[in-house]
TrEMBL record:
Enzyme class name: transferase
EC number: 2.4.-.-
The protein's name: Glycosyltransferase
Alphabetized UniProt keyword annotations: Glycosyltransferase, Transferase
Amino acid sequence: MTSFSIVINTLNRASLLRRVLAGLAHLRYAGQFEVIVVQGPCTDDTAQVLAEWGSRIRTGTCPVANLSMSRNIGIRMARGDVVAFIDDDAIPEPEWLTHLAAAYADPQVGGAGGIVCDRSGYTFQYRYATATRLAETDWRAPGASPSLCFPASFRFPYLQGTNASFRRTALLEVGGFDEEIEYYLDETDLCCRLIDAGFLIRQLPDAYVHHEAAPNAVRDAAQLTVASYPILKNSLYFSLKHGLPYVPLAHIERLHAERVAARRADVVHLVAAGRLPPAALDDFDAAAVRAGETGLRRGLESPRPGSAPTTWSPLPGDFLPFAARAHPDARTVVLVSRDYPPGHRGGIAVFHRDLAEALAQAGHQVHVITEGANEVSLENAVWMHRMAVQRRTRTPAAVARAIPQPVWDWCATALAETRRIAGLRPVDVVEAPIWDTEGAALLLDGGWPLVTSLQTTLHFWLQEHPDLRNDARWMADFGTPMLALEQELMRGSHAVRAISEAIRRDIEQAYGFRFDPAAVMTVPLGMPDAPAAPPPAPRGGRIDVLFVGRLEARKGIDVLLAAIPRVLAAHPSIRFRILGDNTIPRPGERTSYVDAWRAQGHPRRWGDRVVFEGRVDDATLRAAYRDCDVFVAPSRFESFGLVFLEAMREGKPVIGCRAGGMPEVVADGLNGILVPPGDSAALADAILELAASAPRRAALGAAGRARFVQHFTAARMAQSSMPLYDLARGRFAPQAA
């Protein structure tokens, strides 16, 4: 099988280099490949990034900022059959090498490259392009141009350098890159010489690479050209080197003058628009003069195509197989979740983030479809598809079910993106939450194994919103169709993820049906592990009790607020920190629980012993868990209760209620205390019990930390999800047949 040497040429882009190396760790390729990083004269933290990868990669150094020279060093270091180049600001899709390798089954192929997506990850920067011997490029080619691959062809296909690979023996035969071309037209020149040597250039319809096109010495962050010299000089040099056998020198000189005039007009326009400083025009004029003089001299001196290439000697080093992170039984999983961090931090959003990242870290290919602006990017090893919701015509099946238009718009948008993902690779399974029936269009389409995850459903949400539940019009237009659609999803999906036994039981009771035992699995939630926090600094005997959650009745905030005065009166050293959205109106009221607390005069009596902090960022939240002494969440219902895991991860004792999935997370008396839901007196007693004994708090916290590590890590959740996905695939197979 074809072996590859992947070469990354980098200069002062340490953070981007770290990202592309992480992306290469998730390549799926059955053969072997090595990774070579050639750094230019870097002045940033590139050396530190290379040290982090240690013996997994090979490294070289280029003494000057010359991309062609740097690439040639990589070629001389390479030991693979094919040398593949990718920029330090690019990320390959997992199948990149597999698609490239297929091209080299033809021994005549000297180079192959695929599609380049722009920084959005959703539209194309390069698909198919051709160039002439006069450096005239055409990016509008509708497809590959194999008919132009013959020696001396005036127009020929070329590859974009961020997604270009070449047979190593072919590179050695033609002498690699022309080091006169320090930047711009470098790969175009190489493709031209390879074609003249009798090789084929294969432009592929796949082998995707995502290119950010980060700022460099030639372009700024807005993609404006800030250094015209290499572009003008190399255009002239290239035209003279390859074009003189086809047109007279005067023609090339006129073409160069036209290019200078056109580029100067662009600079004038940008200066007038305030996008470039006034000095840019003087800089351009000086660069144009120097480019013309140097390009003409070097172009006339350059060896003509067909002359003998430079003889190279290889640089020392053996082939170093790169250990990718692919799971031996890797799956491609699509997760649909309209809510996803950082824009959303609710339970569903956090669950999908932690599941996605844990699956990716285990070596699976994970695509998350969430709401955004039509962008695709690799984030923490997860392919994020942030899609703008579009109005979608409802299918007859959607009309028959009276699916509300906004609900259909999102789930049909997710379906369309799933189809696009599946057009590039087989999709093994799709998972979506029951909330808002995000998998409805996928269920009706029936194209892939579908898993529905159970969280709080509309039925339970309506218990806290009696105004809507009693609104006949709203129920007819939205509530009743959605309740029916929820049940259809729960009964018709190929597999169902129950995050707790309680949510399964409660849904069956509420909806009046029984899940097919062969289709449902209980897979508890998990979150990334982290070292337990050290004990908080001494606070003079003060004890901090923490609440995290939306300030609404379902979270039991009214129960906690009713218990607080008794606790404060009985224990003078207790302080309460209350974190979460505190703007939610109380049922049937216009004011919030915080408003009511203040109206009752409590702040005057208790001062800063009760602090409402509202929504906080992740760092503040993590620190709050780390610094608290007791965590309390007296919810009337939780399908699981991620907040308990956040506290247990930090080694904190917890107080919850005997309701929903909480008893499956909090073992009463082992790592916390459970009280009856809605019982403020029992809650006050539990808080006071833990406040009275530091050893008991420490013992419960340690037991909670151990329980978290054993049962509730994200890695364990990802591992336990594999049988669930196998179940869905197995139940889908007969239908697919």
